[in-house]
Amino acid sequence: MSPPSLAKAELAVMELLWQQPRWTARALREQLYPDATRSQHGTVQKLLQRLEEKGLVARDRALPVHFFSALISRRAYASGQLESLAQTLTGGSLAPLITHLLEENKISAAEIQRLRKILAGETGCEDTR
Q1: Binned average pLDDT, 10 residues per bin, the chain of 129 residues
Q2: Would strands 57-60 and 23-24 be described as parallel, antiparallel, or unpaired?
Q3: Could you give the CA distance from residue 15 to residue 9 in angstroms, rounded to a whole number?
Q4: DSSP characters for 28-78?
Q5: Which domains does the chain have, with CATH numbers?
Q6: Measuring CA to CA, which residue among 90, 107, 89 is closest to residue 98?
Q7: Nearest CA among 103, 26, 109, 18 for reference residue 57
Q8: What pTM did the predictor assign?
Q9: Which residues pair with 57 in a beta bridge?
Q10: Residue 24 and residue 69: Cα distance in Å, rounded?
Q11: Going edge to edge, which strands form the sheet with 67-70?
């Protein structure tokens, strides 16, 4: 099952959680809204609550100040979203997407080489992003 789609604001929170493993709501708010108001703190709290309900974020309640962390990696989220998009647009095939990217020169020579290695079944091609 692919992870649920995210609104832009939810994705902005996840981007921060992928960069650093543990954040407080306050630290997230300061990053997202440098000139924050009280209402923006509530916005961040609501975003975290929604992400927690979706099963994408964990809340550590061990201390008086709660810490939040991502339960899904950026790569796993992106993979799920690409598979969902392929299912919706092309019956599950990623070939049209890859073909389009190749034809439009959206894939670098290094990325093409990496794809060739994967297709050839060579090991050591894992992407750590």
Answers
A1: 89 97 94 83 93 97 96 95 90 87 90 90 59
A2: unpaired
A3: 10
A4: HHHHH-TT--HHHHHHHHHHHHHHHHTTSEEEE-SSSS-EEEESS-HHHHH
A5: 1-91 (1.10.10.10), 94-129 (no CATH)
A6: 107
A7: 18
A8: 0.80
A9: 70
A10: 9
A11: 23-24, 67-70, 57-60
